[in-house]
């Protein structure tokens, strides 16, 4: 990566359901940098949509990432559901490679009232299997477990950093809104953001900042963590200081905006970042 790219989470709202060609044209018209393809209920994309994305990513100035289906739990109490979750991550990775995606992300697991160390070990077994299969298939796409927004979900920054140290193709997807919500409103100042980046750099090496994948949105939260995403300027998310820290650490990669007004807040973030 040669810079920080600003991506919409899914197709722009202005595309009004008219498909990938229309949506990606709007991304270009707005001078945005790409999209994160949202495989919410399953990894399904018809040939026309695939071609539109392949044509889009053939221009190196544009980037695409993929978000795996929400029905993933690598710590399920039912083995068949773990197997199905592994398959969904593999399918996301395969489609990602096919359309030229930079990386894929997913919510990895729930604690299921188990000890975090036991959950970690269970998840490790599945990630090892996924990485082994993708290696056999010569698929070197980045695998990015996402930091999660609720205390019932596996995925603190520390847990995902630890996992990333075990596998060569695994790095975090850092959702700053989720971290802010999970911790009941902290991790929202320049100094707190800086400490997070320092921690990642110390643990994973400064090269992580050349291949970064992050999410950002406004967020509503309570004692149990994340409730729902909000428009940035209708929330307490301190995106301006966060972008200043991105600039200070010279972060390159992708920042995906998940605000409800998708493209408007993506443009807001990019314009503010470029003004710094």
How would you explain this protein's 3D organization?
With 276 residues, the chain is an alpha/beta fold. Helix content is 42%, strand content 18%. The chain is built from nine helices and twelve strands. It has an eight-stranded parallel sheet with strand order 6-4-3-2-1-12-9-8. The longest helix is centred in the first third of the chain and has 21 residues, at 79-99. The radius of gyration is 18 Å and the shape is globular. The two termini are 20 Å apart.
CATH topology: TIM Barrel
Tally of strands: 12
- Which second-level CATH architecture applies? Alpha-Beta Barrel
Low-confidence stretches: none
What is the name of the CATH class? Alpha Beta
In CATH, what is the homologous superfamily? Divalent-metal-dependent TIM barrel enzymes
Beta content comes to: 15-25%
- What distance separates the N and C termini? 20 Å
What is the count of helical runs?
Answer: 9
Number of domains: 1
Strand order of the largest sheet: 6-4-3-2-1-12-9-8
Structural class category:
alpha/beta
Question: What kind of sheet is the major sheet?
Answer: 8 strands, parallel
Report the principal-axis shape.
globular
Order of helices and strands: EHEHEHEEHEEHEHHEEEHEH
Give the overall average pLDDT: 97
What proportion of the residues is helical, as a percent range?
Answer: 40-55%
Whole-angstrom Rg: 18 Å
